[in-house]
Amino acid sequence: MNKTSIFLLFYLLFFLNVFSQNRQISVHKDYYVPKTSFKEKYKPIDSIGYLIRDGDTLIKVPTLIQPKGTPVPYEYKDSTFLEYYKKIAFNPIHKDSSDTKPMKYWKAPIKIYFSETINNKVIRDFMKFTKLLDSKIDSLSISRVKELNEANYIIYDDNSFQYEAKLNSDRSDYWIYWNNKNQINKSFIRIVNQREFSNKLAAEKMKDLFFSTLGWFRKTYELGCDSYFSNCYSENKYLSEFDEALLKYHYSYGICKGTTRTFFEEQHRTSKKILENHHTKILIYQN
Amino acid sequence: MFKFLILFTVLSFTISTMAQTGVDLGLNKKKKFISIKSLNKAEKERIEDFFITDNDTLVNLKNDLTEAELKLFCECYTNDTIIKKYKEAVFQYSWSRNKKLKIRQWNAEIKVYFDSAIPKDVKKEFIAFYKPLNEVKNLKIDFVKNKDASNYVIKTSDTIISQFGADESDYKETHPLKRISYNIATDNTYKFYSAITLIDLNRLEDKSLLLQKLKQVFFISLGQFVVNERADETSLLSTRYKNSSTISKMDITLLKMHYLKIFDQAISAYVINELVKKSKTLCTDE
């Protein structure tokens, strides 16, 4: 859970005293929190009762200690959509593993530096694409910088200085780094001119690789080649309605960030159960 | 009135060949989710699956054959001669049942750029020769003047090209792959998206072979086809190819069969055999 917390707020008892003359309403609230949240946020003395609901123990507390950060309502999604999201956003630990590595995302604004060897037409075409992404996804900020030391994203080719030693194959590729919160904080794209020998091919490859670096995404066999999440080439790739919806969801504050697939599934199972059974509000706190 | 009748006939033909048949070969499984708002009435009938987003419904349509595709499928897959030649072209042997060898297709419009070292008359004849390929559906070839708009470059090599190793001297200069090579970029699904052809013009003793070699290697690169001496002399895949100013009907048929559809699943010799079996039931009324 770390600094990201789901907070379940239960309004269990409502005492309404309606006065016929002045229509004044008095509301009584009792607060119950899950055991895990109680252990994290409260002292044993704060426990003033409990109840068991759907097999889970909820502890009654006198006041509500809200987690740090801004509360955002949990974002409900269609289960078909979530299946695609899980396949794309979570990389397996190894092929037989039941869980995955945590999903990655950009928290800081992306500042791109291009090596001098990258053609200006390619840069213009590419930046048009990043501008579109920037405008569609609220939490993404993408811009170009002219100074190397201002950048956290470097795009270069095999004719320029080689900025990232790990990129050394005969194929164009990317490399990303992240911090302990699974936030991507540095990225590189290396274009191999022998393979991407024209501006058209270089720009296409650059966009395709850049898209993958927005979340360490796994390209899938299941989607048509026009999608940026598909594993096959298309000269007609575009930010489809599906691509946009999935990328928006990845950057939505209505889900917990930096989690593994198992945690993600558990969060959705719990949240959907609560939404089905109770008239309640689920808040996600992001720090 | 006469003009109206012609227009009506053309429209009717177009609509009928575009019409869906409900026949799905099961070789296109990738889903393309698009907004339901963008569909017309006929397309709404073809929704296969869907999911709901915040303010839209995204749908995936069935990938069944059109009437024109089914007609072509039946013409090719019920004809033993075509199947034999096609399997030889793609898998080398007509009896191949190998599951590992996969067919390869271009999944992009081919934009060919000729390096300035290629003589203009050769370039002109090459373009004229390949013009009839416009009738092959799903294969688009264009010739561009700017290298930066291309994904297929034909140029001369400044290094020695050797395809045959120690056996080099055993092959005559007329062999389609002597003094010339091609390199194609492939994605994860056996689809081509760029290529470079290099010809060693300096060491080509008989310069009149240049056009013939470029034509043959270009054809080979349209599906990573196999050259062999059993092929008819009229075929670009023959080691005994007799240079002609027009492309043979059989070569066009092979391409039509190869580009019947851009398949997103891997197609092996085994799958081709399965399609032949399928044609026996699908094409009975043809």
Describe the protein in words.
The complex is a heterodimer of chains A (287) and B (286). With 287 residues, chain A is α/β, with parallel strands linked by helices. Chain A folds into two domains: 93 residues, no CATH class; 172 residues, Collagenase (Catalytic Domain), CATH 3.40.390.10. In chain A, strands 6, 7, 8, 9, 10 and 11 form a six-stranded mixed β-sheet that branches. A three-stranded antiparallel β-sheet of chain A has the order 1-12-5, covered by helices on one side. The longest helix of chain A is centred in the middle third of the chain and has 17 residues. Chain B has 286 residues and is an alpha/beta fold. Chain B has a domain of 162 residues: Collagenase (Catalytic Domain), CATH 3.40.390. Helix content of chain B is 32%, strand content 15%. In chain B, strands 4, 5, 6, 7, 8 and 9 form a six-stranded mixed β-sheet that branches. Chain B has a three-stranded antiparallel β-sheet with strand order 1-3-2, with no helix packed on it. In chain B, β5, α5 and β6 form a beta-alpha-beta unit. About 2% of the residues of chain B have low confidence. Classes of the chains: A alpha/beta (287), B alpha/beta (286).
